[in-house]
């Protein structure tokens, strides 16, 4: 169910038009068509529409509040899609990434100001995200990473921001190990295995499990419930490994992480993601075993990393 405001403003009153436009934007209204605005009844600010209705009438405009009740699931989905904030979150996450990279040269005062400004911008958007999804979680994680980076640079003696279940791993403890995950690997497991082999344990060997309980003794489990490295909150296993082994500052790896995240759990679309998925599907069709699939995926991800690395330099 949606609260609906139908309005028509006096053409000569530019002050009123600007005030109404700002109020509609701040309340998170969606535009159904020119002069028709929606807010979800359950979690929108219906009182804001009531105040606007009265104000518009006071200044000689037309305003009428109604209730829109979708008659079918498809109609509900169509109206709900009008409130999609994904592109706004994507813009904020890009700004957060830029600021994070700039923190060393910004210094403590300007860096603190920039960090707080972006945190407040995410909070403001969150308040009008009436149907939140992965994009919101990605933005929250990006802000947490930004704050942690600021603390690392400028408050080294203060307690660090919580990594929300993540832990730092000692690279020396993970050399020449057997790494085990579920059989028939797909995007997150394939990318994680590639990351392990290329950046964490170059002598790694892999075991493909029928079930988690078959984990070999002393093997390092990844990407299954109860594994040593697996999803934490909004982060997929690839992102958890990046954080655990302090690889987040590699811009090319971060670009791959965004694609892996989108393909594994959704969220903010990534331009290259579908192409990567198509290439991995081709590898899956060609490969006759999980080891062969990983070998093909390694080549694809090597090329992807090289491309991103070239673009970043």
Verbal overview:
The chain is elongated and about 75 Å long. It folds into three domains: 2-81, Alpha-Beta Plaits; 86-154, no CATH class; 171-312, no CATH class. It is an alpha/beta fold and 313 residues long. The longest helix has 42 residues, at 86-127. The protein contains ten helices and seven strands. Helices cover 55% and strands 11% of the residues. Helix 1 packs antiparallel against helix 2 (46-58), helix 4 packs across helix 5 (134-154) and helix 8 packs across helix 9 (273-286).
Low-confidence stretches: 157-163
Mean pLDDT: 91
Main beta sheet: strand number and arrangement?
Answer: 4 strands, antiparallel
- What series of H and E elements makes up the topology? EHEEHEHHHEHEEHHHH
Give the strand order of the largest sheet, numbering strands 1, 2, ... along the chain. Answer: 2-3-1-4
Structural class: alpha/beta
Estimated share of beta-strand residues: 5-15%
Q: What general outline do the C-alpha atoms trace?
A: elongated
- Computed Rg: 24 Å
Q: What's the number of domains?
A: 3
Provide a count of the helices.
10
Distance between the termini: 50 Å
Annotation, overall tally of beta strands = 7
Ordered list of secondary-structure elements with their pairings:
Elements: E1 2-8, H1 14-27, E2 30-33, E3 36-40, H2 46-58, E4 62-68, H3 73-81, H4 86-127, H5 134-154, E5 178-182, H6 187-200, E6 205-209, E7 220-221, H7 237-244, H8 251-265, H9 273-286, H10 290-312
Helix pairs in contact: 1-2, 4-5, 6-7, 6-10, 8-9, 8-10, 9-10
């Amino acid at each position: 169910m949606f609260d609906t405001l139908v309005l028509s403003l006096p053409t000569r009153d530019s002050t009123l038009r600007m005030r109404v436009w700002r109020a509609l934007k701040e309340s998170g209204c969606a535009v159904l068509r020119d002069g028709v605005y929606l807010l979800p009844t359950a979690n929108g600010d219906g009182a804001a529409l009531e105040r606007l209705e009265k104000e518009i009438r006071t200044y000689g405009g037309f305003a009428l509040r109604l209730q829109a009740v979708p008659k079918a699931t498809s109609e509900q989905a169509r109206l709900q899609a009008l409130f999609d904030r994904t592109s706004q979150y994507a813009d904020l996450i890009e700004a957060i990434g830029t600021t994070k990279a700039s923190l060393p040269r910004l210094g403590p005062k300007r860096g603190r100001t920039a960090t707080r400004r972006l945190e407040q911008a995410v909070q403001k958007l969150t308040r009008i995200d009436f149907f939140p999804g992965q994009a919101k979680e990605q933005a929250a994680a990006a802000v947490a990473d930004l704050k942690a980076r600021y603390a690392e640079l400028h408050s080294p003696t203060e307690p660090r921001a919580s990594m929300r279940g993540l832990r730092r791993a000692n690279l020396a403890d993970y050399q020449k190990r057997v790494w085990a995950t579920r059989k028939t690997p797909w995007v997150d497991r394939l990318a994680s295995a590639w990351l392990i082999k290329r950046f964490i344990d170059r002598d790694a060997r892999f075991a493909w499990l029928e079930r988690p309980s078959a984990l070999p003794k002393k093997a390092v489990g990844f990407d299954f419930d109860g594994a040593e490295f697996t999803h934490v909150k909004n982060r997929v296993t690839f992102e958890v490994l990046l954080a655990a082994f302090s690889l987040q500052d590699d811009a090319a790896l971060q670009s791959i992480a965004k694609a892996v995240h989108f393909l594994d759990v959704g969220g903010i679309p990534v331009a290259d993601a579908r192409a990567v998925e198509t290439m991995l599907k081709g590898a899956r069709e060609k490969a006759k075993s999980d080891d062969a699939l990983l070998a093909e995926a390694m080549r694809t991800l090597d090329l992807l990393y090289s491309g991103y690395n070239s673009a970043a330099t």
